[in-house]
Amino acid sequence: MTLGSAGSSVVVPRNFRLLEELEKGEKGIGDGTVSYGMDDGDDIYMRSWTGTIIGPYNTVHEGRIYQLKLFCDKDYPEKPPTVRFHSRINMTCVNHETGVVESKKFSLLANWQRRFTMEDILTQLKKEMAASHNRKLIQPPEGTCY
Amino acid sequence: MANSNLPRRIIKETQRLLSEPAPGISASPSEDNMRYFNVMILGPTQSPYEGGVFKLELFLPEEYPMAAPKVRFLTKIYHPNIDKLGRICLDILKDKWSPALQIRTVLLSIQALLSAPNPDDPLSENIAKHWKSNEAEAVETAKEWTRLYASDA
Q1: In this structure, CATH architecture of domain A12-129
Q2: Please, how many CA atoms are within 13 Å of residue B126, restricted to the half-sphere of its CB?
Q3: What is the ipTM of this complex?
Q4: Chain A: nearest CA to B100, how far in angstroms?
Q5: Is A19 in contact with B85 (Cβ distance < 8 A)?
Q6: B-chain residues within 8 Å CB-CB of A20?
Q7: What stretches in chain B show pLDDT beneath 50?
Q8: Are A101 and A94 in contact (CB under 8 A)?
Q9: Which of A69, B81, B104, B124 has the most CB atoms in a 10 Å sphere around its CB?
Q10: What does the record note on quaternary structure (chain A) (predicted)?
């Protein structure tokens, strides 16, 4: 047994991983521009979540509050959650009709790794909003939903 | 591969849990993760949980035994120290943890908590209020939930 490799061998099971994410989300993340919480406090399997992203400065998204739905199935975090915008948004990786974040156009989902979290998804989507191909796109009226 | 670095202490504890299980408690590691246990606790006699079979899950974090195991109920239970997600308010799982304790002592303590709910240190405010204002009625609800959710595991 080598000490150095011990860390990588410990796999936190799905439910305990989601409990960690829940507790982190309840405490609040960073500057508060991304946040998330569980939808149904009675769901022992913690499947359905709502995330919020506040649009970044100096973009068309500035000041807008975007709501998303994240669904963590039984195979999370081996597989990524499904991510769908509830608030309408015009963004290259988001399906215009459904609001679904398309994994082939969003590398974090396409190249998903077990250590990634819902916080990582929201933070990366916020960065994506400020990317050159998204920051100036014409947006649907504020407050409309899919 | 995933379990090749399992500390000797965890192996020993697991062997003993399987060969000499504590009365009313069973704990077995899952096949693909030796730090993750499926646990069953029988509701103690003379408690509102009598006759119930309660499923729990337990995980030994990387820091174990320097950090406490993580445990929660998967079976719904009406108890002032257990919340809707099955999380348990028990001092030895938090600040009173000591590496001298074991998986077995943790599970015995949880079993004891079922016999002696402590509404003065609640995790579920509403259930604790119910317990303090009308204990007989709260106990009836706990029995009802045991029948509804814990009787067929």
Answers
A1: Roll (3.10)
A2: 4
A3: 0.92
A4: 22
A5: yes
A6: none
A7: 1, 153
A8: yes
A9: B81
A10: Heterodimer with UBC35 or UBC36.
- CATH number listed for the domain at residues B8-149: 3.10.110.10
- What are the structural domain ranges in chain B? 8-149
CB within 8 Å: A10 and B84: no
- Who's near B15: CB < 8 A, 6+ residues apart? none
For residue B84, the model assigns a pLDDT of 95
- What pLDDT was estimated at residue A8? 57
pLDDT at A16: 98
What pLDDT does residue A6 have? 44
**pLDDT, tens digit (0-9, with 9 covering 90-100), for B114-144:** 999 999 988 888 999 999 999 999 999 999 9
Contact status of B4 with chain A (Cβ, < 8 Å): yes
The model's pTM is 0.91
What positions of B carry a catalytic annotation?
Answer: 89
Which chain B residues are closer than 8 Å to A114 by Cβ?
none
Residues of A in contact with B37 (CB under 8 A): none
Instruction: Note the pLDDT of residue B25.
Output: 97
Query: What pLDDT does A9 receive?
Result: 78
DSSP chain A: --HHHHGGG----HHHHHHHHHHHHHH--TTSSEEEEES-TT-TT--EEEEEEEPPTTSTTTT-EEEEEEE--TTTTTSPPEEEESB----TTB-TTT-BBPGGG-HHHHT--TT--HHHHHHHHHHHHTSTTTTT---PPTT-B-
CB atoms within 10 A of CB B77: 26
